């Protein structure tokens, strides 16, 4: 009888421990950088080959431009990538040089917009 109680207690303890391990594993995977799970819009890899090092400014600009280009195309708006609110008012990450960010972001925005709008 004592053996059965000990075996049951060990089984319950193993079950509780296994349940506590799963959320910790899930929490760790959700903390991974977005860089690993990012899905590039069409044409990004050709325009900005990363070779294992993500270019977060180019990703942000290209994706914003690509989405805006698709939206403008679907609405029948004329091709004007630089006359766009997202092009003019990108959010600059803290600690990054404002001029460098704007230049990179806008260049990649126009490339993304063009690829989406012209179907490249």
What would the keywords be for this entry?
single chain, 120 residues, mainly alpha, 68% helix, signal
In short:
With 120 residues, the chain is mostly helical. The chain contains six helices and no strands. 19% of the residues are buried.
Write the layout of secondary structure elements.
Layout: H1 2-30, H2 34-37, H3 44-47, H4 56-75, H5 85-88, H6 98-117
Signal peptide: 1-27
Keywords: Signal
Calculate Rg over CA atoms.
24 Å
Beta-strand residue percentage = under 5%
Biggest sheet features:
none
SSE order, one letter for each helix or strand: HHHHHH
Task: Kindly state the percentage of residues in helix.
Answer: 55-70%
Q: Gap between N and C termini, in Å?
A: 74 Å
Low-pLDDT stretches: 15-32
Number of helices: 6
Look at the helices and sheets and give the structural class: mainly alpha
Q: How many DSSP E strands?
A: 0
Overall pLDDT = 77
Shape: globular
Q: What oligomeric state is this?
A: single chain
Keywords: Signal
Signal peptide: 1-27
Structure, described:
With 120 residues, the chain is mainly alpha-helical. The protein has a domain of 62 residues. It is 68% helix and 0% strand. Helix 4 packs across helix 6. The protein is globular. About 15% of the residues have low confidence.
């Amino acid at each position: 009888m004592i053996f059965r109680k000990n075996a049951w207690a060990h089984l319950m303890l193993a079950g509780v421990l296994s349940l506590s391990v799963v959320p910790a594993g899930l929490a760790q995977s959700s903390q991974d950088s977005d860089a690993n799970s990012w899905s590039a819009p069409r044409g990004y890899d050709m325009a900005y080959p990363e070779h294992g090092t993500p270019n977060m400014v180019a990703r942000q600009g290209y994706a914003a431009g690509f989405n805006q280009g698709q939206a403008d195309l679907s609405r029948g708006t004329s091709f004007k990538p630089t006359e766009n609110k997202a092009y003019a008012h990108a959010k600059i990450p803290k600690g990054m040089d404002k001029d460098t960010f704007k230049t990179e972001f806008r260049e990649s925005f126009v490339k993304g917009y063009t690829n989406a709008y012209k179907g490249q």
